[in-house]
Amino acid sequence: MITDTLAQSHRYLGLSPRFAAAFAFLEKLTASQADGRVELDGDNCFALVQSYLTKPLAQAKFEAHRHYIDIQFIQAGREIILWSPLAALTQVTEPYLAERDIAFFANPPQWTAINLHAGQFSIFFPEDGHAPGIENNGSTAVRKVVIKVRA
Fold first, then answer.
1. Which of 17, 94, 109, 146 is disulfide-compatible with 104, CB 3.0–4.6 A?
2. What number does CATH give the domain 2-150?
3. Minimal CA–CA distance to 46: which of 58, 37, 54?
4. Span 8-55, pLDDT tens digits
């Protein structure tokens, strides 16, 4: 797991040959970009533009992916994303769905809270469990882009 600002994204380009396209998209992102899927490199790299209200901690839902790395970028607003190593997520609540590359887990006894604000991102690798969209000092509107990068 990595957390940083978009201004520092160049530091992570060597982690995947697809990160250059992902961060280039984020750097050019405008407020007028419609919600939905944006193709960057077919199923190898695509963006999911989302707008939503953050939810209470009690509604946190840990997830993990097998084949994709998530770059979760906050364009506007703020949220908390909970992080835990996948090895600590021992209770499956929804089995792995290959067509969505996702499994859900019960909350582990310990996690790390990542406070993200506009202009910041977190990268979650397949070994990183995460629960996004949690409110930070009350529910707020968030504009977020999740870029799915094939690992």
1. 94
2. 2.60.120.370
3. 37
4. 999 999 999 999 999 999 999 999 999 999 999 999 999 999 999 999
